[in-house]
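Exam revision sheet. Question 4 asks you to relate a sequence to its structure. Input first:
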Amino acid sequence: MSFSFAQLGNDLYSGTRSVPVVARRRRFYLGSVAVIVVALLGLGIQQLNLGLEFKGGSEFRVSGTTDTEGYESRARDAATLESGADVNVTLVGADTIRVQTSRLSDADSADVRASLAQEFGVPTEDVSATFVGPSWGATVSQKALQALVIFLVLVSLVMALYFRTWKMSLAALVALGHDLVITAGIYAWTGFEVSPATMIGFLTVLGYSLYDTVVVFDKVRENTTEAFANGRRSYAQAANLAVNQTMVRSINTTVVALLPITAVLVVGVLLLGPGTLTDLSVVLFIGLLAGAYSSIFIATPLLVSLRSKEARVVDLAKKAQAYQNRAIKRERDAARELEAGEPVGAAAVSGPRDEAGPREEGATLTGRAVHQYARSGPRNQPKRTPKSKR
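Answer key, structure tokens:
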């Protein structure tokens, strides 16, 4: 029997199949907490590998070299002998070697240029030297933090007004923090360099994660409004149905977004080397995966936990349980009548069932009672007058 992703999506949307995301939310909470603890340990122990733009220093680029065999040790030896500073060496593209050191004086910088040119057999003019002060990186960080705070404040206000509850805003912000901490932790443990492009990627990840969460929350609001109106599902059941209905869409959206990012990442790593495209694609790849997870398994379950003690939600759970118990009883009675060979009651044959169970006898989808006509003979026939009275 072949697997159909489209059929799975239809089954999840209609409720034929269901993934118990909300019912098992504690497992997802524990998993996320464990990952966040590991991420925080990475930030505390390994710390972030800040790029030259944030900590300042000198950078040399050897262009046009054809001899890149053992480039890392050769460049480090040549630069260290002249400057005595810590050296970071990377290959950019196929023929450019980038050497980063701490801040050097003009004389030391000239010596390092000459040494690198001699080591790789290129003219001194092909070795560029630049200096970046730490104040530039500090300014970028400050502006990024300001943009982040303004973004979060505006998002909280808009979501609270749109969904008419601050608890949805809080759940969405927790999901955003979840994504940021995990992404930063992966950067710390792997040693990926944090550049200005990385900061831009972080802010972009927030937008993607929030977009996915809002889509799920919109479906949650629709389902829970219906549940409060008819009392056939509890708040948790309606929210879980919303997660299932949007799950395949969220996965498809994430996969489609990751395809071009993966292509850029592969080209950047294999051909271009370290640079803006590589830094941006790395943070987007990690952040989108974390955002897809949080929008499905963290945001909505957390919303249910936040609202579980509300009197209105508790009352709805009681009504839904009573309705579902009646539906189960009717199904059992109908099954016993079938086994005994007796006619099935009108409640079991009165028509199709809705998603929460069978309709009560004599009720329509709107909940209005209708007149039940006798089954013998046609309806609304004119009464015949006897010939003797004509």
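Marking note for examiners. Residues 250 and 273 are 31 Å apart (CA to CA).
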